[in-house]
Specification:
alpha+beta, globular, about 20% helix, about 100 residues
Length: about 100
């Protein structure tokens, strides 16, 4: 299953600061429909993600009714993504596991 999510890069300043993109409502709803097929526990959803030419594996998790995509520094540097930028993230979920 492939999902294209467009969102703004935001920063969480908690004890482990990180950058994220929130998956919009409609796309998060599609993920929720298959979550039980792909989760490995605690609601984490393993995905292959792509921004531009950069692909990586990560896990989505739920926050405030949406799923969020963590963006490591190396991903942001490779694609010149900054805080507040609007990006398109292509997410691939393996629903045939």
């Amino acid at each position: 299953m492939e999902i294209e999510a467009v969102g703004e890069v935001w920063h969480w300043r908690g004890p482990a600061p990180f950058h994220f993109v929130s998956v919009p409502d409609a796309e998060s709803a599609r993920i929720r429909e298959v979550a039980s097929l792909v989760t490995y526990g605690w609601g984490m959803i393993p995905v292959s993600a792509r921004i531009g030419a950069t692909t990586w594996t990560t896990s989505l998790f739920a926050k405030d009714g949406l799923y969020v995509v963590p963006l490591k520094d190396r991903i942001r540097a490779a694609e010149d993504v900054k805080l507040g930028d609007t990006v398109t993230v292509v997410l691939t979920l393996d629903v045939n596991r």
